[in-house]
From TrEMBL:
The keyword DNA-binding applies. One of its GO terms (molecular function) is DNA binding. This is TetR/AcrR family transcriptional regulator. Residues 33-52 bind DNA. It holds the Pfam family TetR_N. The keyword DNA-binding applies.
Length: 224
């Protein structure tokens, strides 16, 4: 008699992420409980805690997965792997466009941006990615400037994207992306405004050529 094969850890995590995302979208993050996620996933709460201790951990996992995928794709396809500032700007551009081009993902992002622990975790992920790239390329950017660039830039990003989502006029996505990336580059304190503008323009052109469907498909989260 053949036994059913138990799902692997990655399969279980993927199922939990799908169920959680569906619940967050249908009834809101605040009204979704760990108990509901466990029941819908067909597991006990103790089993769920093995993978995710809190709801916040699920959102953090989603953001980290997205950013790591974008980072890997940008570095892999970069024509100039030594240009850290262009890579940094391109990653930020693609990340923002990825959010707004997928309505489900955008709504999850907005819910997460209202939660302090998720905001801080998202900032830490971006900081770690930037520090890693700088170290890989032996680029001299102070940790303090990286932290200021990410933290202040993220706060502005959240506010601008909320206004864009709610349809406020004068908030088109290209202008928002340009503002976010310009601010972050200037706060690194290593290039002037003219150089920033050149990098941002090039990064936005690179971002327009990116395969956004490929990112979403590889995440395996938003397919119900």
């Amino acid at each position: 008699m053949n036994e059913l094969k138990s799902p692997t850890i990655s399969d279980m995590e993927r199922n939990i992420l799908k169920i959680s995302t569906e619940l967050f979208l249908n009834q809101g993050y605040d009204k979704t409980t760990i108990r509901q996620i466990a029941e819908k996933s067909g597991i006990g709460r103790g089993h769920l805690y093995y993978y995710f201790k809190k709801k916040e951990d699920i959102l953090i996992h989603i953001f980290k997965q997205i950013l790591n995928k974008i980072y890997d794709d940008v570095i892999e396809n970069s024509d100039d792997k030594t240009e850290i500032l262009l890579s940094y700007a391109t990653i930020q551009c693609i990340y923002t466009y990825t959010l707004v081009l997928n309505e489900k993902l955008f709504r999850i992002y907005l819910q997460g941006s209202n939660i302090e622990i998720v905001r801080r975790a998202a900032q830490d992920i971006l900081i770690d990615l930037c520090k890693k790239k700088a170290k890989d390329m032996n680029y001299n950017i102070s940790e303090k400037d990286i932290c200021f660039s990410i933290t202040i830039g993220y706060a502005g990003e959240c506010e601008l994207l909320k206004r864009f989502y709610h349809g406020e006029k004068n908030f088109d996505i290209d202008s928002i992306v340009k503002s976010i990336i310009s601010t972050r580059l200037l706060l690194l304190n290593i290039i002037d405004y003219k150089q920033v503008c050149l990098i941002v323009d090039k990064a936005m052109k690179e971002a327009k050529k990116f395969d956004y469907n490929n990112i979403i498909e590889k995440l395996h989260i938003f397919e119900f």
